[in-house]
Amino acid sequence: MNNVFGATSTTDQVLQGVNLSGKRILVTGVSAGLGVETARALVSHGAEVVGAARDLSKAQNATDQVRAQAAAGGSLRLVQLDLASLASVRGCADGLLAEGKPFDLIIANAGVMACPKGTTADGFETQFGTNHLGHFVLVNRIASLLKSGARLVILSSAGHRFADVDLEDPNFAHTPYTEFVAYGRSKTANALFAVEFDRRHKARGVRATAVHPGAIATELGRYMTAEVRAKLIADIGATMPKDAPPFSWKSIPQGAATSVWAACVADAEAVGGRYCEDCHVAGISSTPGLRGGVQPYALDPQHALALWQTSEQLVGERFSAN
Question: Would residue 183 show up in a list of annotated catalytic residues for this protein?
Answer without folding.
Answer: yes
